[in-house]
Design goal:
about 525 residues, alpha/beta, FAD/NAD(P)-binding domain, 2 domains, seven-stranded mixed sheet, five-stranded antiparallel sheet, 16 helices, about 35% helix, about 20% strand, globular, binds (2E)-2-methylbut-2-enedioic acid
Length: about 525
């Protein structure tokens, strides 16, 4: 049926929905719902890892294959360095830029290498805000408790404590650099409430918070004249032969040549793995989100944590086809947008944690209450026009200009028509194990942002990712830089690659897969 006819149910049922009682789940019922419908619990999507630091542990097939993949670097590569640095930062997103700026401020010689352009990252895709406990009604302790509850109590307490406590100083740092957070009529910072949070604590810049933060960080990296190399993907780390990280091998994406960077410390900030399209899911992630840092750190011997859990953001676009998987910010639900099934009913508290909301959407679709598009995709409605009805015409334009434009490009007016959504692969909850200074289990190898794991437990709360990037980017930058003042550059070897290849052979792994893959499988080779 034509999408406009299907949409009528949303308009017709709006009044009835206002008085509808929503399901209230006990902890046991939440658990049952998640186990039945959340993609993390589809057993056949998982397999155990054959060798390496996480040998025998379960992860999704796509990640297991990536981790067991072979290095693209030949064993006899000439390791004469083309560049030297105190701190090599790999990744030009939020965590990478924050790390580079803080390391540079310590007086270190910093080299920032990034696979695409500076700023191309998931950071710019974070629309809905950064969580910071700054109001009188709120506190870092409350932020800690909300995050712990959202993460199913599986968060690393030390990392979490550091993140919530340093939130306010990070917000001050960003304001000082020129980030234009939204303010109320009196000029005070305006905070909004995100899913799973007991208090409003999201600082926002309309619905382009990540883009605004990245604008300022990028400018600052350029202003400080930090040595930058774009379109240069890190493909392998270097070790001193005794498990200490001493640099990395980059690959120039134009001419495919390898380039050796000798560095006293390395900070990996390569982001997540959405572009592996786990279980065939579309993704909200940027084109380069292929888990490069995970693969490199793993080969070097770093332990990974909670790599059996991923976040499927409840609202990924389902229609039109050009937007499949693109993020429809949680901010719309925070402002009161209803989720509506084919019967015109709400079926979940829209501000419950993302795992509960996504599981509920999947349940509606599997039980026949989803809406099918003409191309065969399925989803439920997000009643965007409701915001205009409740808060007055122009509300969407004012608070969600990016979302309005995203749909307008395809002739859809979200002030008039509801949008069809379904969970989209959004975030890797786990990653490389780090300590509070962002150092991995490998000496002198630091990891910040989505590549790291432990902080968010089994389900991240909205807005905690941007804060994570800033806090642990800073800590990685400062610690890595400080350490370099009292150490010499170590030897450059590929001993760990040799050992990894021997292990692969011993375990009969010869998939022919090279990792990191750098781009999604469907990328044009040229
Ligand atoms: O933290 C996020 O994932 C985020 C802010 C997403 C969103 O819905 O806007």
């Amino acid at each position: 049926m034509d999408i406009h006819l299907l949409q009528q149910i949303v308009h017709k049922t709006r009044d009835a929905r206002r008085t509808q009682t929503l399901p209230k789940y006990s902890p046991a019922e939440r658990d049952t719902l998640i186990k039945k419908y959340h993609p993390d619990f589809r057993e056949n999507a998982y397999r155990s890892i054959k060798f390496g630091p996480n040998k025998g542990e379960l992860t999704v097939r796509e990640l297991a294959t990536l981790l067991e993949g072979d290095s693209p670097v030949p064993a006899d590569l000439d390791l004469t360095p083309a560049h030297t640095a105190d701190v090599l930062v790999v990744g030009g997103g939020g965590a990478g830029c924050a790390a580079a700026l803080h390391a540079y401020a310590q007086g270190a010689k910093v080299f920032l290498a990034t696979k695409l352009r500076l700023g191309d990252s998931n950071t710019v895709m974070a629309q809905g805000g950064i969580q910071v406990a700054i109001t009188n009604e709120d506190s870092p302790i409350q932020h800690f408790l909300d995050t712990l509850k959202g993460g199913h109590m599986k968060n690393d307490h030390q990392l979490l404590k550091v993140m919530v406590e340093e939130g306010p100083s990070v917000a001050r740092w960003l304001l000082g650099l020129g980030v234009l957070f939204d303010r109320d009529a009196d000029g005070n910072l305006h905070v909004k409430k995100g899913g799973g949070s007991s208090k409003p604590r999201l600082l926002t810049c309309s619905d382009y918070t990540g883009l605004e933060i990245m604008r300022v960080l990028k400018d600052e990296v350029l202003n400080q004249k930090i040595q930058l190399m774009e379109f240069s993907a890190a493909v392998e780390l270097l070790s001193d032969g005794n498990g200490v990280c001493t640099g990395a091998v980059l690959q120039d994406l134009d001419n495919k040549r390898f380039m050796v960077v000798a560095a006293k410390t390395v900070i990996l900030a390569t982001g997540g793995i959405g572009r592996l399209h786990i279980q065939g899911f579309p993704t909200s992630n940027h084109y380069g989100a292929t888990g490069d840092g995970l693969a490199m750190a793993y080969r070097m011997g770093a332990k990974l944590l909670q790599i059996d859990t991923f976040q499927y953001h409840p609202s990924g676009a389902v229609y039109p086809e050009q937007l499949i998987g693109a993020l429809v910010t949680e901010g719309i639900r925070s402002e009161g947008g209803h989720l509506v099934n084919a019967k015109g009913e709400r079926f979940v508290n829209e501000l419950d944690t993302r795992d509960v909301v996504s599981s509920s959407i999947i349940r509606e679709c599997e039980e026949g209450r989803g809406i099918r598009t003409m191309s065969g995709r399925i989803g439920v409605w997000l009643d965007t026009p409701l915001l205009e009805v409740e808060q007055g015409p122009g509300t969407l334009d004012k608070h969600f200009p990016a979302m309005v434009r995203q749909y307008k490009r395809y002739g859809i007016d979200i002030a008039q028509d509801p949008v069809l959504i379904y969970p989209t692969l959004h975030y890797q909850n786990g990653g490389v194990q780090i300590n509070v200074d962002s150092e991995s289990g490998v000496r002198n190898l630091f990891v910040a942002g989505e590549t790291s794991g432990g902080l968010h437990g089994r389900n991240r709360l909205m807005g905690n990712s941007l804060l994570d990037l800033m806090v642990f980017g800073k800590r990685a930058g400062i610690t890595a830089a400080t350490r370099t003042t009292s150490m010499k550059q170590g030897k450059l070897t590929l001993e760990h690659v040799k050992r990894f290849r021997e292990e692969a052979r011993k375990h009969g792994v010869s998939s022919g897969i090279v990792s990191p893959m750098l781009f999604p499988a469907y990328a044009r080779k040229e």
